[in-house]
Amino acid sequence: MKHKVKLLVMAGMLLAVSSAFGSTAFLYLKDRTGNVVHEEGTFKQHSMTEDELADIPRRSRMNQIWDTMGDGEAAFIYVVPDNPRHLFELKLTPHTFTDEKELFAKLNRPQLELPGELASGYTFKSGTIIFEPSRREGNLSEKERQEVVQELQEIARQSGQDYAVLPVAFNKEFWAFTMDYVKGEEEVSLRVTNLFQHGSKGYTEEHIQMEKTMLEENGKEAIMTRDEGGQSVELTWIVENQEESGHHYLYSLRAHGNSAEEKLKQIWRQIVQ
Questions:
Q1: Mean pLDDT of residues grouped by 10 in the chain (273 residues)?
Q2: What's the chain's Rg over C-alpha atoms?
Q3: For residue 232, what are the CA distances in angstroms to 148, 163, 229?
Q4: For residue 252, what are the β-bridge partners?
Q5: How far is residue 52's CA from residue 48's CA, in Å, rounded to a whole number?
């Protein structure tokens, strides 16, 4: 389902400066001025509130509608039944690509210097881009929110459906994109998230067993995450936008298999050199 889709050889060895990731541990990635741009930690799973439990039918119906949206669409989705608080949510679907040149042209960010081929012979397979929407529900004033609710209710009334979809335009900035690379049956995924002037936080439920390690090489830092069995590995780091002070991108590499850790380290060196 669309809504379940969630990102050289240099001298010197990678240095592990932190090991097991406990319930109170936090790891940070900073920019060259020392500001924290990204942090990762854990949280205790909480019991659902009465409002959250009552909202399950609405969210389930909303996700069904989300799955019917086409590639490269954004919309406010409003479900009529089981919605006493008149909630609506922005949902997005990515533009999809099987040609890296088309993806690069659509993205139009030559300063990111994205590789069409990764170290050890991994070649581009497919990719996606989600552009920044022109409107988000959280940025609407109360008056604007009421106007959107009224418009959605009218759309539902005229259509006779139990829901309404109000298209939202994209602007030219991207929010996130992914690139999948393959070598035989092996696959590596790269995700780049546009943080703009904001930071980001990644939290995992406390009961999920994993290990996080801080890596450093030649002034570059990354957070490595291994699942309990060590079969899934992710490397996360930040890149500063050299054209705009305070603007950052969050990069995430993911791979599976016994050699995933060394594979990602080699690719990371290639990208950040």
A1: 33 32 63 85 76 94 96 97 96 95 90 80 94 93 97 98 97 93 92 87 68 85 82 90 83 89 88 81
A2: 21
A3: 42, 39, 8
A4: 191, 236
A5: 6
pTM metric for this prediction = 0.81
Which long-range contacts does 239-248 make (Cβ < 8 Å, 24+ apart)? 239/112, 239/272, 240/31, 240/32, 241/111, 242/111, 243/111, 246/197, 247/195, 247/196, 247/197, 248/31, 248/37, 248/195, 248/196
- Rounded to whole angstroms, the Cα distance separating 263 from 58 reads 42
Phi, psi of 245 (to 5 degrees): -60, 135
Q: Is the CB of residue 229 less than 8 Å from the CB of residue 258?
A: no
What's residue 46's pLDDT? 67
Q: How far is CA 223 from CA 27, 168, 260, in A?
A: 8, 35, 15
Counting Cα atoms < 13 Å in the Cβ hemisphere of 192 gives 24
Tokens of 41: 């930690």
Spatial separation of the C-alpha atoms in residues 183 and 244, rounded to whole Å: 36
Nearest alpha-carbon partner for 73 in 143, 150, 166: 166
Residue 54 main-chain phi, psi, to 5 deg: -70, -20
Q: Which residues contact 246 (CB under 8 A, 6 or more apart)?
A: 197
Nearest to 24 by CA among 40, 48, 47, 46: 40
Pairwise CA distance, residues 141 & 128, whole Å: 31
Going by the DSSP 8-state scheme, the letter that residue 51 receives in this structure is H
d(C-alpha 22, C-alpha 35), whole Å: 23
Q: With contact defined as beta carbons under 8 Å apart, do 176 and 126 qualify?
A: no
